[in-house]
Design goal:
16 strands, UDP-galactopyranose mutase, isomerase, Rossmann fold, five-stranded parallel beta sheet, globular, UDP-GalPyranose_mutase_C, binds uridine-5'-diphosphate, seven-stranded mixed beta sheet, 12 helices, 377 residues
Length: 377
């Protein structure tokens, strides 16, 4: 007789949502994580009153009302709006691509009509039909000038490949608009949980047994029948001991510094778009909460993090799945194996080899709740 109804592998967002709902539905759950903390990659750690996003900046944005209402049950969200700056050779530009960017790049451009005409002229000069790669996609969207300054260097650093060898889909995430609006996201709702993401996930996991620093394989080697069902949010290839080969990822390296100054860059995110600068962005974490501590008072110090893109090799932290044809084909084979599992269900970014925004990860967890527990969220 298994001790638990569900073993949930991974205490990140997917695992926490599922564990919360399963517990609420009367199931006995055990959540494990190999790390020494909950919250997966949205983990925040408090340093000098600042909630530091330890695995990269996470800004919650969604147009899904049910997801927004759900997260608000576990945290109070502030009204942070992401408006990053792009730094290129001593100049700064607003992101995403909008009228502020166009007017700075082309000083003669002031109105949307002028911007559209300028971009149309640049696109015509390229003679591109249906874009077949990221370079063509970017050129067709914003023209040569912006591509050279704000896309090419950043993208090639981020992905370690030429823009012509990358799928057009990567850049489709980025808004391009003809209004003076610096909001990076087009979504209806946006904000940061006051007090950090870790607290939000801890709330989801209230009343759930959690064991940290536990390896799934070691646990089930000792207790193979520990749970009736398993929700596995780890890497799908690792589950199968990489027997069909390894799925590839793009990794990141973070270097953080505590600085004895109140404000380092005046904004949460500065992208560094030149190829020659080795990092892609600097995050100044306190700006996610307007520079204020838990008591509402200004904080005297600041923490910044430089984000360096990195090649991934087995054993490194996986961040971005490399969803090219070769890896997708390998994933499909693992997914076939997974479909034959009776009592193990694969979920989340690592389990599904998908680059999820947080809201999409939660929406996918809701689907899992529906199929597993019959509960509609
Ligand atoms: N991108 C760019 N210039 C920028 C920011 C982004 O060319 O200043 C491109 C780049 O190819 C990147 C993609 O847009 O991989 C998606 O960017 P996003 O900010 O959505 O990436 P994330 O924050 O999820 O890493």
């Amino acid at each position: 007789m298994p001790q638990y109804d569900y073993l949930i592998v991974g205490a990140g967002l997917t695992g926490a949502v599922f564990a919360h709902e399963a517990t609420k539905a009367g199931k006995k759950c055990l959540v494990i994580d190999r790390r020494d903390h909950v919250a997966g990659n949205i983990y925040t750690q408090e340093v000098e009153g600042i909630n530091v996003h330890k695995y990269g900046a996470h800004i919650f944005h969604t147009s899904l009302a049910n997801v927004w209402n759900y997260v608000n049950e576990f945290a109070e969200f502030n009204n942070f709006v992401n408006s990053p700056i792009a730094y290129y050779k001593g100049e700064v530009y607003n992101m995403p691509f909008n009228m502020n960017t166009f007017a700075k790049i082309w000083p003669e451009v002031v109105t949307p009509e002028q911007a559209r005409a300028k971009i149309a002229e640049q696109i015509a000069a390229e003679g591109i039909g249906e874009p077949s790669n990221l370079e063509e996609q970017a050129l067709s969207l914003v023209g040569r000038d912006i591509f050279e300054k704000l896309v090419k260097g950043y993208t090639e650093k981020q992905w370690g490949r030429d823009c012509k060898e990358l799928p057009a889909s990567i850049i489709k995430r980025l808004p391009c608009r003809f209004t003076y609006d610096n909001n990076y996201f087009n979504d209806r709702y946006q904000g940061i949980p006051v007090g950090g993401y870790t607290k939000m996930v801890e709330r989801m996991l209230e009343g759930v047994e959690v064991r940290l620093g536990v390896e799934y394989k070691e646990l089930v080697a000792g207790e193979p029948d520990i749970a009736a069902r398993t929700i596995y949010c780890g890497p799908i290839d690792a589950f199968y001991d990489f027997k069909l080969g390894e799925l590839e990822w793009r990794s990141l390296r973070f270097e953080s510094e505590l600085l004895d100054e109140a404000d380092h860059q005046g904004v949460a995110v500065v992208n560094y778009n030149e190829r020659e600068v080795p990092w892609t962005r600097i995050i100044e974490h306190k700006h996610f909460e307007f520079g204020l501590g838990a008591d509402g008072q200004p904080l005297p110090k600041t923490v910044i993090t430089r984000e360096y893109p990195a090649d991934w090799k087995p054993g490194d932290e996986p961040y971005y799945p490399l969803n090219d044809a070769k890896n997708e084909a390998l994933y499909a084979k693992y997914a076939d194996l997974a479909a034959q599992e009776g009592d193990v269900v694969f979920a989340g970014r690592l389990g599904g080899y998908k680059y999820y925004d947080m809201d999409k990860a939660i929406a996918a967890a809701f689907d899992l709740v529906k199929t597993e527990l019959g509960v509609e969220l």
